[in-house]
Amino acid sequence: MSASKLFTPREIVSELDRYVIGQRDAKRAVAVALRNRWRRQQVSEELRDEIAPKNIIMIGATGVGKTEIARRLAKLAQAPFIKVEASKFTEVGYVGRDVESIIRDLTELAIQLVSEEEQRGVRTKAEEHAEERLLDALLPRAANGPVDVTNPMSVRGDVPAGSNAESNETREKLRKLLRLGELEDREVELELSDESGGPSLSIMTPQGVEEMGVQFKDLLSGMMPKQTRRRRMKIAEAREVLIDEEAIALVDSDKVKELAIRRTEDTGIVFIDEIDKVAVGSGGRQGPDVSREGVQRDLLPIVEGSTVQTKHGPVVTDHILFVAAGAFHLAKPSDLIPELQGRFPIRVELASLGREDLVQILTEPTNSLVRQYTALLATEEIELIFESSGVEAIADVAATVNERAADIGARRLHTVMERLLEALSFDAPDLSKQTVVVDEALVRDRLGDLVDDQDLSQFIL
Question: Domains in the chain, start-ordered, CATH in brackets?
Answer without folding.
Answer: 2-117+259-349 (3.40.50.300), 124-250 (no CATH), 355-460 (1.10.8.60)
